[in-house]
DNA sequence: TTGTAGGCGTTATCAA
DNA sequence: TTGATAACGCCTACAA
């Protein structure tokens, strides 16, 4: 069964009446081959169905063309749009994404990076979790490029792309104030990843600075269902909040639906809501959510261009300020 | 810079005081190595940070461990959940997904398959588009396994997993009839992929058989925005439909939102809606959509288990009947 | 511009 | 159980 019959460069060479090297050169951009030789080689290759063996090529060149994408919960709207953008950018520079599914544990991220090393991946892009320093050091030492997206932790030799979560949270607070909201709340998941924490801290800090109190509620993963629970907890309080900043859009959707359908509240009249991520669903007319836009394409471009450009060896941090997209879930604006 | 310094089996062997073969055997499951040798090798490997080079291993074994996933519009909820399920299943059998982003053209699918051949992928799984027969033949001839999901076209030597779209559409018709709907409509995209066509044809056929007329409207890609347009077209007709079967859930969401917010209709009292796919958003309380569930996990399992098991050489077709998940967008039930 | 020779890191084979 | 040796398919000098 597993008798894979691939045609090798030698066979092409024989058929074209040239040497193996000539075949190799034909498929190496910028190598010196005569027009005539190239033509004959291409003809033979076409006829035989020859394809350069990227495994063998990677072995020689020490460059596999593979880039490892490490993600958990990849079917989440924000994640999947980021994956799409990154894989698109990678293909534009003739690289290809190896997708690795991790659970929330950092151990599984370590394993993923080990796999990346085994496949001699040119780079690894980490969207979820935080690997151990020893393993990232090994990656970097092996010449692998490392990109950490929204990980908010330092790693030597890596590119770190982070959003300015605190500043964004501050702007959310101001938006609520302008809308005349009095009783602010922050709805967070309880997974406690750095960026989620930063959003909460930034929001609370801004409020304290202004002498305003904030209710913070945390529950579950950053999903719709958690938003439902969070809304139930927040909206049954004695002093019902009239503004909720949600750690991400999925939570916001759950919060809005619950506020409307279960508590018969009107958005934005009774309660204002702001989210984070800019997932497509939030533009649907059932939500029309004011939210911070993660610039997915920009993130992908920065990551990939750094992979291809020979950058400095010391680590680089990139700070991006997400744009606040005004829609109908906040009064005024 | 690009000076990748990887530690090889030889270095490990030297440090452990054994031969390269011993190292190789240590990392080959089921090979015969003494406990003592294994221990010393592992120790040296650990100290040096050795990782088996999968590129070289793939070269020898003629088995790369790579499986090519060919998808377009991968950030769509249904697609991303399928990708997640498949990559998860692949990892369970120690394979790894190479993700390839294609646009709608079949040409790019051909290119993707060429890439799969170049990387000596053990298999390719096609979720979008339909490649040329010549290229799939080459894949199969090269010993690559081929899986076509919802492609509805025959390819020699491939596993074809299809949903029974016609039968599902028939059940949708019956559901509407039981709900007492009189004026039926089908909302489709105009991209005309086989499964979308089949759903339309099945629905229309069922209606004709029962002597009922159906309005069919087609527009744009299978996205929310198309649903908005389709609803506008359908709901401004003289004889406004009181039941709409949508080719997929995203269309259904757009249709429902538009019916409610723009036309002030009530679901399911004024109009019943059925979707297709079972994306998470449809369970949100703003939609609560009755829909056909694509058994994503089952599809993934079937695909991956076929890859690993040495199956017959002739092509195999698998027909799956999607379950109708009853929710609040259809009366009665 | 072309061909020859050697090596990349691994595994399979075979003899010890 | 172990070690030497020959592939795997390719690329890169080097010499012609």
TrEMBL record, chains A, B:
CDD domains: HTH_LacI, PBP1_LacI-like. SMART domains: HTH_LACI (SM00354). Signal peptide: none annotated. PANTHER family: LACI-RELATED TRANSCRIPTIONAL REPRESSOR, RIBOSE OPERON REPRESSOR. GO terms for molecular function: DNA-binding transcription factor activity; transcription cis-regulatory region binding. This is DNA-binding LacI/PurR family transcriptional regulator. PROSITE patterns: HTH_LACI_2. Residues 7-61 form the HTH lacI-type domain. Keywords: DNA-binding, Repressor, Transcription, Transcription regulation. Pfam families: LacI, Peripla_BP_3.
């Amino acid at each position: 069964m597993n008798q894979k019959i691939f045609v090798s460069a030698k066979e092409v060479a024989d058929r074209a009446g040239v040497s193996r090297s000539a075949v190799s050169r034909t498929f190496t951009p910028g190598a010196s081959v005569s027009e005539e030789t190239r033509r004959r080689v291409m003809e033979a290759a076409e006829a035989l169905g020859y394809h350069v063996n990227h495994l063998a090529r990677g072995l020689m060149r020490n460059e596999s063309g593979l880039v490892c994408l490490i993600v958990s919960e990849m079917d989440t709207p924000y994640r999947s749009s980021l994956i799409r953008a990154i894989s698109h950018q990678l293909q534009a520079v003739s690289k290809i994404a190896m997708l690795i599914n991790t659970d929330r544990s950092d151990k599984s991220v370590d394993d993923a990076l080990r796999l990346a090393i085994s496949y001699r991946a040119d780079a690894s892009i980490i969207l979820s979790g935080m690997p151990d320093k020893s393993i990232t050091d090994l990656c970097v030492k092996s010449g692998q490029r490392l990109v950490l997206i929204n990980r908010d932790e330092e790693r030597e030799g890596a590119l770190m792309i982070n959003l300015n979560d605190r500043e964004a949270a501050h702007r959310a607070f101001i938006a609520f104030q302008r809308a005349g909201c009095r009783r602010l709340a922050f709805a967070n998941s309880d997974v406690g990843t750095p960026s989620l924490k930063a959003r909460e801290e930034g929001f609370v800090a801004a409020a304290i600075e202004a002498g305003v109190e904030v209710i913070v509620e945390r529950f579950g993963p950053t999903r719709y269902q958690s938003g439902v629970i969070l809304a139930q907890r927040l909206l049954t309080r004695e002093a019902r909040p009239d503004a909720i900043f949600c750690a991400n859009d999925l939570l916001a959707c759950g919060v809005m639906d619950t506020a409307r359908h279960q508590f018969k509240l009107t958005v934005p009249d009774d309660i204002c809501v702001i989210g984070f991520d800019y997932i497509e669903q939030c533009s649907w007319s059932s939500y029309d959510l004011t939210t911070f836009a993660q610039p997915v394409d920009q993130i992908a471009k920065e990551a990939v261009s750094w992979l291809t450009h020979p950058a400095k060896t010391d680590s680089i941090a990139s700070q991006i300020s997400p744009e606040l997209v005004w829609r109908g879930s906040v009064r005024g604006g």
